[in-house]
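Figure caption, in words: inputs first, then the predicted bound structure.
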Amino acid sequence: MIKRNPHLAKLNAGYLFPEINRRKREFLKNHPEAQLISLGIGDTTEPIPPYITKKLVKAAADLGTKEGYTGYGHEQGMPALRKKISEQLYNNQFKEEEVFVSDGSKCDIGRLQQMFGAAVTTAVQDPSYPVYVDSAVIIGQTGGYHPETMNYHDITYMPCKPENDFFPDLNQTPRTDLIYFCSPNNPTGAVTTRDQLTELVKFAHKNRSIIIFDAAYAVYIKDPNLPKSIYEIPGSREVAIELGSFSKMIGFTGVRLGWSIIPNELCYEDGTPVNKDWSRLTSTIFNGASNMAQMGGLAALDPEGLVEMQQMVTYYMENASILKQAFADSTYKVYGGVNTPYLWINFGKRRSWDIFEEILQDAHLVTTPGSGFGPAGEGFIRLSSFGHRENILEAANRLKSFLKSR
Ligand code: PL4
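Bound structure (PL4 present):
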């Protein structure tokens, strides 16, 4: 018999999203007639648009030919895609060697933890995407869990609440090696301003920390004054890694494609470039993103693909606005839903899982409880705008009735 990995044993209960699915299944078992609508897990629903689909189909068909077949590729990604990501999304700021293609940003988060190891200290926004904390737990960075505070001992939680405009008070934040930061934020929907991001970059410089900037929802930013990338901030190349994803950009949640940027200037204390280790780690434990997915990524960054991407984003953002409108007559405060596909609703002193259950039982809507994203999410519910329009309209009606009955 072998001993269980003690770090895995430290993880609290189930991972948030399977837990939501478990409760949904349980509800359906007891109410098989219910027409549930999910505003819970942020998963895209609309078909991949025609230009990109055509290229994906061609990529698959080519694999069935002698001339078109390809096997293992570059672990760091197709050179053409690395180049195109830099050209189309970063004004050509990065050399090919600074861009790494992957099977999605969640997987990159896990591999980054593996690269940095157990000895580093980590700060996260509270609330935040649960993978940052859970993967830190698995790698052994976190110490024990305190159920009363819902905190892991060695993680620094940076509260992001309405009171501080969802931006942490950096004067009160101790130094850590890594800082996970997400904008547009999952779950609060807050989009960090240029001034705030400049403050964060300065803070990282002062502390010689590395920011892991999760830009999975950057394409949803329409306000030209808001930064879509941390690299719009001077000095960020020396202190930041950026993670990007095709998942919410173009409906590749199932196709699986993402990227990371690690600029050459980002170095360890001994002067070794961080991307040297990232390239090495990638070669060792990752065999590269699927060749078909990468062809899809190339298509998404063609002019035709970029148009399709914008249409998809507009569709989901109209959904967000419909859902937001449902709260117009209610006293509950709603954040997000603009420049971001998530809405973050404050239910005051109520517990998130209680509200989740109430909305599930009374309105037959699946949501995500805010406390699943960290202690500061208690009392909030997150709504996702990813959904078919007819379902979003129906969900908005049900929400209105639910809110009226309170
Ligand atoms: C459910 C801030 C969703 N099973 O698809 P990826 O791996 O490129 O991106 C995942 C990701 C990365 N960064 C942020 C994200 O919000 C997400 C996806 N989050 C959500 O509802 O919060 C999907 C969650 C999925 C999961 O566990 O990631």
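The chain has 13 helices and 15 strands.
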